[in-house]
């Protein structure tokens, strides 16, 4: 699988357009959840994605420490529908965590997970750190990988 990680300024206009298009298709249209997809955080994030011929197959963004939380965060995790149930989400999360551990030299990671995905994120070592709450009408839970060295 061809994975790329880029800061905002390294994204071409067409790559950025394709990423945002897929995020809107999944989070707003597919999940029937009207919310402000563009939140002024993308400009300071790392963007991890896999594409073929311009088609975004899987994507997430990595938020540096203190941008949204005290910890590094992974967000906007998507796999385009035709590529689901093929291990792409597992590969995506593995690559994101590897980048955070090796390049950002961070071991604590916080996410807002959809409640039904707790088991998936738990398989990477994420533990729930909040009760379930509604975020844009969808049950979510905060989860973290806590620094194992402390």
Automatic annotation (TrEMBL):
S-adenosyl-L-methionine recorded as keyword: no
Superkingdom of origin: Bacteria
Residue ranges annotated for the N-acetyltransferase domain, each copy included: 6-150
Keywords: Transferase
Pfam families in the record: Acetyltransf_10 (PF13673)
CDD domains recorded: NAT_SF (cd04301)
GO MF term set: acyltransferase activity, transferring groups other than amino-acyl groups
InterPro entries the record matches: Acyl_CoA_acyltransferase, GNAT_dom
UniProt-recorded name of the protein: GNAT family N-acetyltransferase
Organism: Anaerobacillus alkalilacustris
């Amino acid at each position: 699988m061809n994975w790329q990680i880029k800061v905002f300024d390294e994204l071409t206009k067409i790559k950025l357009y394709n990423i945002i298009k897929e995020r809107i298709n999944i989070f707003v249209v597919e999940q029937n959840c009207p919310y402000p997809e563009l939140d002024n955080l993308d400009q300071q994030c790392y963007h991890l994605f896999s594409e073929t011929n311009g088609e975004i197959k899987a994507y997430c963004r990595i938020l540096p420490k203190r941008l949204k939380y005290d910890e590094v965060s992974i967000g906007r995790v998507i796999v385009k529908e035709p590529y689901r149930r093929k291990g792409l989400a597992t590969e995506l999360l593995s690559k994101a965590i590897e980048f955070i551990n090796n390049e950002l030299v961070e071991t604590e990671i916080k996410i807002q997970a959809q409640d039904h995905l707790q088991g998936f994120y738990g398989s990477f070592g994420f533990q729930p750190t909040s009760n379930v709450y509604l975020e844009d009408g969808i049950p979510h839970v905060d989860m973290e990988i806590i620094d194992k060295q402390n």
